[in-house]
Amino acid sequence: MKTTPAPLAWLAVLAAVCVPSGLAFGQINEQKAATPQEELAAKARAIFETHCYECHGGKQEAPDFNVKLYGTVVGTSYKYIVSKNLEDSAAFQAMSEGRMPPEGKPRPTDAEIALVREWIEKGAIKWPDVIAARPFVTDIDVLSAIRDDLRSAPSDDRSFLRYFSLHNLHNNWPVERIGKTAPVDADILNLARAAISKACNSMSWQNQISVPKIVDKNGVVLRIDLRDFGWDKNNQWATLLRSYPYGLQFHKSRDPAIQQMATEVADLSGSGMPCVRLDWFIDSATRPASYKALLELPNKIDELEKKLNVDVQSDFLRDRLARAGFAESGVSRNNRLVDRHPAAFGAYWKSYDFAKSEDRGDLFKFPLGPEFDKNDFNRQAFKHDGGEMIFNLPNGLQGYYLSKANGEELLEGPIEIVRDLQETGGTAKVLNGISCMACHTYGMKRFTDTIREGLGVSGDALLKVDRLFPTKERMDKLLDQDEERFLKAALAATASFLDPADPASITPAKLKNYKEPIGLIARMYQKDLSLEEAAFELGFQNPAELKTLIANNSTLQNLGMGPLANGASIKRDKWAFMGNDGRARSTFHRAATELNRGVPFKEL
What is the rounded end-to-end Cα distance, in angstroms, of the chain? Predict the structure, then answer.
């Protein structure tokens, strides 16, 4: 991610920045020379961007704090910066006390801290936000890009080509903030593109990483070939479309140009809906039912292990696994034990999780489970309640599976045993697929065995433990090996999007500086909608136009959109809920119909 030029250079380019008319963000007088106060503000802004933007902007560590945007820094309810009040300015206090930036990152100099102090004491003067102009992308722009790409593709390939659009995110820039709405900057768009590549490749049994291709000049339409991921157009893709809450039949639009374009796209692709929203796909296709369908996961764990060429019992008997146990885990509420098995495509990690840590759940007394007929140590065998399986896919990324103790598949983990602290799926439940992808940012999570040195077994059982539980040094080497494999694949999937200008500069170490993209985009999608976001999703360039329509349209108000006209937000699940009336229409569908944008899509 790039930083801005040095302060003086930054001032020099302000006059060249194109700011759309009618928007209050960053408007400047090109003929007016900067005052000393404005120069001070510009220098303060440059310091924040140099030292804070990586997390508070690029990574969205605090989604409402983007140092590129003055309105998210000064005068907010969280009090990042409070005019003429150093003590209440949380961001300044963190900077001056050395708590931020985090350890290992370049720290601001004493002179830079003094300049920020002066800026706050003089009233935290507003800086002009630097805005790179971004053209508004319409539905017809998206359709046109898809049509042109299909025309250029070999006719035999067209029916396998599918598209993702992020134009609703692209259009969310720049706007006036209302409530908790933050415009989507270029770095977030790059992460969205990285997310779709990582997600698709994380649901594929193919040998190679396949990177989606951008097909339009604005970078908002990406193409995949379903065959590159082993997906069937008449099975997995068609099933996804049944729950797609934003599909509109543009070939039935009242606009002749859109109607003609959509008809040609449908004819060329052989699909009435060859394109879906990228953020919806990230959130929905990675959830348990769709994840299971796209990755073709079996109903029993032994079927998956057979596919991966793993024999758990044989590996236990022959000491071919590496085992570790610990009392504390970021996911499991109680004891957890993990085994690493060699597998067809790298490693297969199997965890054993427990509803309680006493009796047969006490790994210090019962480290040699699970019980099975040929296990000579059944007296020292634990009894688990479920588990999480992590396995390398042929392309180097990871697949995930949850199961009961008897091996039956679970789509979500019992909350009393495991939990998702990030709530990536909108719940603390661990949802197979989305929760796991967001959690395992760099592959396997690091851990340290605490069982080996505190055991309550002796004799042959102790010798068996010594063979199964490797030293920390050996286990760390295995973790290093698996992390290297995963990061190599993740780089292949995402580097060209994270730094389009110089993808070769993205190393495994640098990749760790980026926010995990799937979790980021999923959480962005799930949050409540503001007026601006609803407007862009409905195709309005000016959110105020939608606000007026809502205020004067009882149908839109009855759909629950009234709060948007009053500066409040509405729930995403309400907006996208498809209903139980058998007609598969979301609130979005109903609003779009009322506004003459189109009619709800139904696969022909």
Answer: 44
- pLDDT tens digits, residue range 468-526? 999 999 999 999 999 999 999 999 999 999 999 999 999 998 998 888 999 999 999 99
Is residue 181 pLDDT above 80, yes or no?
no
Length of the chain: 604
pLDDT in tens, 102-121: 877 788 899 999 999 999 99
Compute the radius of gyration of the chain from its Cα atoms. 27
Give 28's pLDDT tier (boundaries 50, 70, 90).
very low
Q: Are 350 and 316 in contact (CB under 8 A)?
A: no
Helix (H) or strand (E) holding 501: none
CA distances from 228 to 147, 200, 231, 297, 395 (A): 21, 10, 8, 18, 11
- Please write the tens of the pLDDT for every residue from 185-229: 888 999 999 999 999 999 999 999 999 999 999 999 999 999 999
Lookup: tokens for 139: 């539905």
3-state helix, strand, coil in the chain (%, to 5): 45, 10, 45
pLDDT tens-digit map of 472-485: 999 999 999 999 99
- SS3 of 567, please? coil
Q: List all residues 6 or more positions away from 333 whose beta carbon is below 8 Å from its beta carbon.
A: 416, 417, 418, 419
How far apart are alpha carbons 432 and 289 in whole angstroms?
9
The helix or strand, by DSSP H or E, that contains position 388, with its residue range, turns out to be strand 386-392
Judging by DSSP bridges, how do beta strands 386-392 and 398-404 pair with one another? Answer: antiparallel
- Long-range pairs of 567-572 with CB within 8 A, sequence gap ≥ 24: 567/178, 567/179, 567/531, 568/179, 569/179, 569/180, 569/528, 569/529, 569/530, 570/528, 570/529, 570/534, 571/528, 571/529, 572/525, 572/526, 572/527, 572/528, 572/529
Tell me the pTM.
0.83
Per-residue pLDDT for 76 more than 80?
A: no
Q: What are phi and psi of 162, to 5 degrees?
A: -135, 160
Which amino acid, one-letter code, is at 522? A
Q: What backbone phi and psi angles, to 5 degrees, belong to 570?
A: -130, 160
| Spatial contact of 545 and 576, defined as CB atoms under 8 Å apart | no
Read off the pLDDT of each residue in 437-456 and give the average, rounded to a whole number.
89
The neighbour count for residue 470, using CB atoms within 10 Å, is 19
Q: How many beta carbons lie within 10 A of that of residue 501, not counting itself? A: 6
Name the DSSP letter for residue 409.
Answer: E
The closest alpha carbon to 346, from 396, 402, 401, 399, belongs to 396
Q: Domain map of the chain by residue range?
A: 7-121, 139-295, 301-470, 534-594
339 phi and psi angles, rounded to 5 deg: -120, 135
Q: Provide φ and ψ at 350, rounded to 5°.
A: -125, 120
